[in-house]
Design a protein that fits this description.
The protein is of the alpha+beta class. It is built from 10 helices and 10 strands.
Length: 363
């Protein structure tokens, strides 16, 4: 079956009125397959986002979709009455059998979101205002989920941000060296071993559990085309219990450097202090009311921990033969790993100044 025919067949299983008019790949995500599908409704083309969930990564897609359904319903209730409230939260389109997912004949799991028009994500931050707006959106996301009713959300990927376990997995990958790449990654392996103390910083800080996004890279916040406001948080597959600082740390990791995640010219990878300041101010403007003193004191450490963890993950996947992340060239995961470690070096060079900033903002 041609891809277009498959996508049309799957999309028709959801409660979408009108005639299927086509589909095309959408976005640059590493994990799921995403498509923009178009239906003609009363002659007008209307877009939707159709996604096939990667069940190799998310082994319990039902639990994942239960989380997303609970979270989006709660956020929609919180946003009710606000301007553009239907654009501030992802909206799931139910399948015709009443569930919010569809299972195809081959066992593939699919979902559909209403497409949020007149807003976009950016792979790299272009201004301090963008950094401020994205951080404010992620902080608001956390703040509005503080009151999410029990039961506790499902752990879609257990120990997702358990950095010591990520470190242990890397050690195993180094020892087994199944792809024969350990020698090619010798400098990166030495960097990890020299910085191993970073791994336990957040987990040993006795921070409270929150409902968190757990993948707050800069391009997971949509910015309004007209106003530039951070209007909606997307990519909710990893929303589950976690530490608030996992989210802030990933903002630092993805929004403070002008370089892309797989940049090969490492001199371009650096923490830009004005971007960090914008993140702190934006995040605390929406999340500062519920964060504890101890959480605020670890904001700077969070950036190092999450960059370290992500570098470990890229390096582990490289040593394992590129089995987790999509790669587009030889050594792609190793390039990604190197940018994370270069960012850590830049943070370490500015760490005292960064901590002073946080204290001054909170004073």
């Amino acid at each position: 079956m041609r891809l277009d025919d498959l996508l049309g067949e799957v999309a028709r299983q959801f409660e979408i009125d009108g005639e299927f008019a086509g589909a095309a790949p959408y976005g640059a995500g590493h994990i799921n397959d995403s498509y923009c599908v178009v239906f003609r409704q009363a002659g007008v083309p209307v877009r939707f986002l159709l996604q096939r969930i990667n069940t190799r990564i998310f082994t319990n897609p039902v639990a994942l979709m239960q989380n997303i359904q609970r979270v989006t319903s709660h956020l929609a209730a919180q946003a009710k009455g606000e301007p553009d409230c239907d654009r501030r939260v992802l909206t799931l389109i139910p399948a015709r059998d009443g569930r919010v997912w569809h299972v195809d004949a081959d066992g593939g799991y699919w979902r559909v979101y209403r497409f949020i028009e007149n807003a976009r994500s950016y792979d790299a931050v272009e201004s301090t205002e963008q950094a401020f707006q994205s951080a404010r959106a992620f902080g608001r996301f956390q703040q509005r989920l503080v009151g999410l009713a029990l039961p506790r959300l499902n752990d879609t990927i257990p120990d997702f941000h358990n950095t010591p376990k990520r470190f242990a997995a890397l050690e195993q990958a180094i020892a087994s060296d199944v792809a024969g790449r350990a020698l090619l990654a010798k400098p990166e392996i030495e960097f990890v071993l020299a910085h191993r103390s970073i791994a336990g910083v957040l987990l040993n800080a006795n921070l409270p559990e929150r409902v968190t996004h757990n993948d707050t890279k800069f391009n997971n916040a949509l910015l309004d085309d007209a106003t530039g406001e951070g209007i909606c948080v997307i990519d909710l597959d990893t929303v589950m219990p976690g530490l608030a600082l996992y989210d802030f740390g990933d903002m630092v990791r993805t929004a403070t450097s002008p370089a892309e995640e797989d940049e090969r010219t490492l001199s371009r990878v650096t923490l830009q202090f004005p971007m960090f300041e914008a993140l702190v101010r934006g995040y605390l403007s929406s999340a500062g009311g519920f964060l504890t003193k101890q959480e605020k004191e670890h904001l700077v450490s969070a950036g190092k921990v999450i960059a370290f963890e992500q570098g470990i993950r890229f390096l582990t996947d490289y040593l394992a033969g590129d089995v987790y992340y999509k790669v587009h060239r030889e050594g792609h995961n190793l390039d990604r790993c190197r940018t994370q470690f270069k960012l850590i070096e830049s943070i370490e060079q500015q760490e005292d100044r960064m901590n002073r900033l946080v204290r001054d903002i909170e004073a």
